Amino acid sequence: MSTELGALRGARVLLGVTGGIACYKAVELARLLGKAGADVQVLMTEAAQRFVGPATFAAVTHHSVPTDVFDSPELVVHVRLARSADVIVVAPATANTIAKMTHGIADDLLTNVVLTATCPIVVAPAMHTEMWEHPATRANIETLRGRGCLIVEPEIGELAGGDEGVGRLAEHRAILEKISDELSHGRDLAGVRFLVTAGGTQEPIDPIRFIGNRSSGKMGYAIATEAARRGAAVTLVSGPTHLADPDRVDIVRIRTASEMRDAVLAHFDEADVVVKAAAVADFRAVNPATSKIKKDAGLPAISLERTDDILAELGRTKTSQFLVGFSAETEDAVPNARKKLAAKNLDMIIVNVVGGPHAGFEHDTNQAVLLTAQGDEVDFPLQTKSAMAAAICDRIAHGCRFSKSQ
Ligand code: CTP
User: Fold this and answer.
1) Which whole-number Å values give the CA distances from 90 to 93, 111, 149, 157, 289, in the listed order?
2) Which residue of 138, 164, 207, 290 has the lowest C-beta tally within 10 Å?
3) How far apart are CA 132 and CA 95, in angstroms?
4) Active-site position among 96, 112, 213, 345
5) For residues 253 and 270, what is the distance between their CA atoms, to the nearest angstrom?
6) What are the Cα distances from residue 186, in Å, to 121, 142, 195, 359?
7) Ligand 1 pocket check for 396: Cβ under 6 Å
8) Could you tell me if the CB of 109 is within 6 A of ligand 1?
9) For atom 3 of ligand 1, which residue has the closest CA?
10) Given this structure, which CATH class describes domain 3-185?
11) CA-CA distance, 16 to 236, in Å (whole number)?
């Protein structure tokens, strides 16, 4: 087994197997975990036992497979199991178990253990495309992610119904690598103070109307969530969004570019890393009307003035902060972003080309190029914003020394 899976050696892995056809793949996953040196304890839901027998897992892991809270003479078997795991892996995770985990339902041994556990949790969903794409499952997955669960996204491929689509359990290798990552540097940002901005700003024209932009805040929220999951202390300065507050993140809500500047400057000194994913308005109305502009009064002339460039100001005044900017461009994306990287004295910039399908504003997926002050250029192909947030945090963790807090 390669060294990338080194963190599995000696790790106590609790593998929760839930009821889907991909249960048969969980047998191989258990075997590979054991081969990598992990001590694997399998728990099965009732539905899982319809697909594969506990004896199969017991033979592969050399541990009996408890299936019921009342199986054991021990009264609090779920507490012992939860405390004895270094990581819990739910694979395959059905939509039903994901929903139960999201809502804190504990009606079988596995969900009791999950509800008791304080260790990292890795969830590898497998289900039909319709179930994976259902708004209920999407919301549940985002909630779990917000709480710090690592989701190993299902893959596109042939499904049990003979059809093709997203929903197939991720490859064993991908799951093993995620578990190993979680064990080795799952909390590699512990003690690091992140200041993240997200969403668009709104510049009033009158008490009812504003100049805004299409930013949904999803990318910035994904970065705040990922950094918090990896142990960072995160302050998120957010423009108006429709997104739920991420867990374990301090949120400061603002509306205008000027409010964002005040909030960012108030937290800048104590930050180690600043990620400015917000789409800040470049222009605002001079003296917005104090009462509603009525259309009968003719076409209004609205004079605009520049807002302050917050990121440029941070670049001028930074001490040891690692500064990450974002750049939204419609043409000459990389050369323009490289100019911004230098002009604003940034350490890193992520450039989105706006206008492509499935990427940029409002989408759950994104495609980007990451540039560093050292001249690196990394392509991020189309992927979920959560996956991209993890890749960006990897690069940040690699690129800066967090000299202030460690
Ligand atoms: N930014 C900022 N304050 C502003 C405008 C932008 O802090 N008033 C930050 C954004 O949060 C982003 C970066 O600067 O991280 C780049 O934003 P972008 O809109 O792509 O570029 P601008 O610098 O505003 O330049 P232009 O609009 O001309 O492309």
Assistant:
1) 5, 10, 10, 20, 56
2) 290
3) 7
4) 213
5) 19
6) 10, 18, 20, 27
7) no
8) no
9) 309
10) alpha beta
11) 33
Q: What are phi and psi of 330, to 5 degrees?
A: -105, -20
Least Cα distance to 1 among 37, 50, 44, 47 occurs for 37
Helix 54-61 with 23-35: angle, nearest 10 deg? 10
For 286-321, write each residue's pLDDT tens digit: 999 999 999 998 899 999 999 999 999 999 999 999
Select 193-405's CATH number: 3.30.70.270, 3.40.50.10300, 3.30.450.20, 3.40.1180.10.
3.40.50.10300
pLDDT tens, position by position, 202-217: 999 999 999 999 999 9
For the Cβ of 20 lying below 6 angstroms from any atom of ligand 1, the answer is no
Residue 318 vs residues 81, 116, 156: alpha-carbon distances, Å? 47, 43, 44
Annotated active-site residue 213? The verdict is yes
Which of 213, 262, 311 has the most ligand 1 atoms within 8 A of CB, as the residue to mutate?
311
Domain boundaries, the chain: 3-185, 193-405
Determine if ligand 1 sits within 6 Å of the CB of residue 326.
Answer: yes
Positive or negative torsion for Cα 281, 286, 291, 292: negative
